[in-house]
Each structure stands twice: as structure tokens, then as C-alpha cells.
Amino acid sequence: MNARVLVAGIGNVFLGDDGFGVETVRALAEHPLPEGVEAVDFGVRGVHLAYQLLDGYDTLLLLDATARGGEPGTLYLIEADGSTGPETAGAGAPPPPVLDGHHMSPDAVLALLDTLCAGTGATPPRRTLVLGCEPAGVEEGIGLSAPVAAAVPEAVRMALDLIHGRDHDETDRPRRELRRTP
Prior knowledge:
By secondary structure, the protein is of the alpha/beta class. It contains four helices and six strands. It has helices at 20-28, 46-53, 106-120, 146-163; strands spanning 5-10, 37-43, 59-65, 75-79, 127-133, 176-180. Helix 1 (20-28) crosses helix 4 (146-163) and helix 2 crosses helix 3 (106-120). The protein is globular, with a radius of gyration of 16 Å.
């Protein structure tokens, strides 16, 4: 990755494995990052993330718990296609994003960003990636489950590889799964 990059750790540390993104961005911040790369713990402040993105970033890397049906601790690298959903014109249009700063999913943040960019003339990130981890549980409680905690160092390595533009053969990273959103 080159140019300005925002690595955003999101999630609620009071809901078990939902704190994966926050814990991973904290671990990532212990590593030296290239100029132009910011690693920020946004936690549950989705509105803050949307406004931060108005500052102009080429790439957004979201770190988040991502339930996709795999084994707990499975890491997913998902490249968003840049759209936030179906066409917004017409009677079947999805409702505008709800501005609940404590319950905004990444999809809601990106939808809000589209609205903010349209109103301000700002440009959204050219590329959006989600580095997610399959949670074991997101019930009330502080601390990650054992499989999710064990995935944090690998997630940091994957994030650093993405930041530095390195890619590895899939065979040496068995828990990595690349998916593109439709």
C-alpha cells in the first residue's frame, strides 16, 4: 500500500471477541509504521471514523470481528468493491444510515461516508479492506476468547504485509481467506 492509509480498529471491548479490532490495532501500533500510515483505535465511535475519512485516505483497512461461519479465530481478508449496497434511487432504496455512534457497523460507516462525501465534495478511500476474525462469542465480558486472542499476532502480520505491499503464498497462511464482496 502506498499513499495515505488509515488502519481502523473497531469493536466493543465490553463484548468479548467484538474487541478483536481494538486489540489488533493496539498490537499493530507497537510496530513502526511507514509515513502516511495511521493506526487508530476507533472502538465503537463509527461516526468519528466516518469524519476522519473525510481527511483523505487512499486506503482504509478495517480491523473487526467478522462472523462468516468459520472456526473461531479464522482470519478473513475482504476487499470491498466500493459500493455500499444496491442503487439508492427508487422506491426500494435502503434507508439512510442511522446515526447511532455506538452501534454503527462498517457498512453503516461507509454509507454515512458516502453521504458526507456527497455533501462536502471529499473523496472516499479508493480501496477498502476488512481484516476480520471469526469470533467465538460476543456476549458481555472483557477479554478475547483463546482462539481469537491467538489470531491477533497473525492479524498484525497480515496488516503489516498489506501496509508494506507484501503478499505471501496462501499455503503458508492456512487461516487467511480472501473474499471480495459482490
